[in-house]
Fold this protein.
Amino acid sequence: AQSVAQPEDQVNVAEGNPLTVKCTYSVSGNPYLFWYVQYPNRGLQFLLKYITGDNLVKGSYGFEAEFNKSQTSFHLKKPSALVSDSALYFCAVRDIGTDKLIFGTGTRLQVFP
Amino acid sequence: GAVVSQHPSWVICKSGTSVKIECRSLDFQATTMFWYRQFPKQSLMLMATSNEGSKATYEQGVEKDKFLINHASLTLSTLTVTSAHPEDSSFYICSARGPEQGAYEQYFGPGTRLTVT
């Protein structure tokens, strides 16, 4: 079965510093991976996806993610964090067999001024 | 493009009553819609998948008689929580996907917070 794991419940970073939100995956076959962000009392906003191609995927709001097949990881990164980046971040994988999105448990990013 | 709306954004109802939540794709035809439930500080749990014109497919453990899903048109799906109880209080999120979006992306609505008193 496909799954994703987000090992950190919360990540704290100072504004202006680089940030990384970790995600590892377990799939059979080629993974279709996604990152979403959720602000309080809001739905999910799509940030970026990896289907195939370059391992470094660029997305919205200056975020990027690096697909690493050998480490089965898809970490979300940003070179310089903003206070407004504070939110809940979800990694997801598309289950090829069922065509469903399977979400990780989420990581709360807190950016301090 | 690819905007999904939900109505209402929040609702309070009394125990035993039913409440309907609407999910609309505003600028694309949503052949498939998904309904999720999110408890505080937890991830999204898929409740059901609905294809336009077909009966919804419910995930294991989700009561289909309690959570009625209708996907009667390519732009509208509804979730009705019947005989609501306080334990049904949650954040309900829909997402939609259409042929223009391909098979890879879902677009999410802003969510509906249901509180049952």
Q: What stands out?
A: The CA atoms of residues 22 and 78 of chain B lie 5 Å apart. The two ends of chain B are 37 Å apart (CA to CA). DSSP finds no helices and eleven strands in chain B. The first strand of chain B starts at residue 4 and ends at 7.
